[in-house]
């Protein structure tokens, strides 16, 4: 399906979010194809019984862990990458042997409609139905009993999903978000750092759950960081990003209004232009943002990049740890001690050093949040494991029954001395 229908998928994404023809395969399709290829090539290995260590009482027996399907799972996708974030979990669910109800986001309506039309042509619709609709349809799905619920989206809805699942004691995977910090050390190569940060922040018009949400840097380099981002934006999108085929749009009017409200009261250092009729917001940088600003109170999820100054790495670590655990953390530094401290003294769902977003692309790494940024992991084998019950199996022989005398009553069968009996207990 991914190979056959690339053109239709790209058209739907263009209509949904003005996704460029180049970014569609890069951010939606290549990763999906890799997930499918990996699952096909490794499935026999993933599904095989895994022998475990035995003790003296089971030395001649079989002890192993057997992955088995959970049953019927619910996958609720997201609108910002509607194909990758909906179908990647489905790949793992199918590999693990489950049936799945797929609920694409109604906000990416063209992609949702296309997925509903296409998936039954490639998969058994009795086992993998697609349910389209909005809040009421999602609420109705959540009233049903599933064996696992996999949700990608914001933390507010994530809590509702978890609450609904709890009524059936259904386990959940919640891929949420949060404010992912990006610390820039004063001794790093700022040209490279600014290029990588600019790409990760403004691709998909900033609507990426692991985009750098804000920058932390010392005051001495703030203006150089701003200038580095300004020059990179000019290189990437030209003097007028609005006319660039590579620059996206905000998903809907509600999110556009929310972002414009976040920007109220601030003078943009870079960008700041907007057009409500096109849901266009220029790549925008705001410097000297105070920690208590509204820009710093919620996940931005758009093309607004605040810069908060910190006095040193101690201040940066303190700033990060005062807030909820983020989905991602980014550190730009050439100093191994700085990198080591950041990794050792903070926590986050994932971390990338000297780049952004790229840990997501490595399917040998588990992807997921911690605390308010989510629970559970996926990608590659981690998705298979997330959708599997890992059954503990012990297959014993009927021989060597004399060994079991130590656990049968009466306890004086071996010796009338309790002290000696204790020696035989395990």
TrEMBL record:
Protein name: Aldehyde dehydrogenase
Oxidoreductase among keywords: yes
Residue span, Aldehyde dehydrogenase domain: 60-390
UniProt record similarity statement: Belongs to the aldehyde dehydrogenase family.
This protein's record includes keyword tRNA processing: no
A GO-annotated cellular component: cytoplasm
GO biological process, alphabetically ordered: aldehyde metabolic process
Sorted UniProt keywords: NAD, Oxidoreductase
Active site: 175, 209
MF (Gene Ontology): 3-chloroallyl aldehyde dehydrogenase activity; aldehyde dehydrogenase (NAD+) activity
SUPFAM superfamilies linked to this entry: ALDH-like
Record-linked InterPro entries: Ald_DH/histidinol_DH, Ald_DH_C, Ald_DH_CS_CYS, Ald_DH_CS_GLU, Ald_DH_N, Aldehyde_DH_dom, Aldehyde_DH_NAD(P)
Pfam families in the cross-refs: Aldedh (PF00171)
């Amino acid at each position: 399906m991914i190979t056959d229908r690339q053109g239709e998928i790209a058209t739907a994404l263009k209509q949904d979010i003005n996704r460029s023809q180049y970014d569609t395969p890069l951010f939606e399709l290549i990763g999906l194809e890799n997930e499918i290829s990996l699952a096909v090539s490794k499935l026999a290995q993933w599904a095989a019984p895994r022998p475990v260590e035995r003790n003296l009482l089971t030395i001649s027996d079989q002890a192993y862990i057997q992955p088995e399907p959970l049953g019927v799972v619910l996958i609720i996708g997201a609108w910002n990458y509607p194909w990758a974030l909906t179908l990647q979990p489905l790949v793992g669910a199918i590999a693990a042997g489950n049936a799945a109800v797929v609920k694409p986001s109604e906000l990416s309506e063209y992609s949702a409609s296309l997925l509903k039309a296409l998936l039954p042509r490639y998969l058994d619709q009795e086992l993998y139905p697609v349910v389209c609709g909005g809040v009421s349809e999602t609420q109705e799905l959540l009233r049903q009993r599933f064996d696992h619920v996999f949700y990608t989206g914001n933390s507010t809805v994530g809590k509702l999903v978890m609450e609904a699942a709890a009524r059936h004691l259904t386990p959940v995977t919640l891929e949420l978000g949060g404010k992912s910090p990006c610390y820039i050390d004063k001794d790093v190569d700022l040209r490279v750092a600014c290029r990588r940060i600019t790409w990760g922040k403004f691709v998909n018009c900033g609507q990426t759950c692991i985009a750098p949400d804000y920058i932390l840097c010392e005051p001495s380099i703030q203006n150089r960081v701003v200038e580095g981002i300004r020059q990179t934006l000019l290189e990437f999108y030209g003097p007028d990003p609005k006319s660039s085929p590579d620059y996206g749009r905000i998903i809907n009017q509600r999110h556009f209004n929310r972002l414009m409200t976040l920007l109220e009261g601030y003078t943009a250092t870079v960008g700041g232009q907007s057009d409500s009729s096109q849901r266009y917001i220029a790549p925008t940088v705001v410097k000297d943002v105070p920690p208590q600003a509204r820009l710093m109170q919620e996940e931005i999820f758009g093309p607004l990049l605040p810069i908060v100054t910190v006095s040193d790495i101690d201040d940066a670590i303190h700033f990060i740890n005062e807030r909820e655990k983020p989905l991602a953390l980014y550190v730009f530094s050439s100093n191994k001690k700085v990198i080591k401290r950041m990794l050792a003294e903070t926590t986050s769902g994932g971390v990338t050093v000297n780049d952004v977003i790229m840990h997501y692309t490595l399917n040998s790494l588990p992807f997921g949040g911690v605390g308010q940024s989510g629970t559970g992991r996926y990608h590659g084998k981690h998705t298979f494991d997330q959708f599997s019950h890992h059954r503990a199996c012990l297959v014993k022989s009927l021989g060597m029954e004399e060994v079991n005398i130590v656990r049968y009553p009466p306890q004086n069968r071996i010796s009338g001395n309790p002290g000696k009996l204790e020696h035989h207990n395990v």
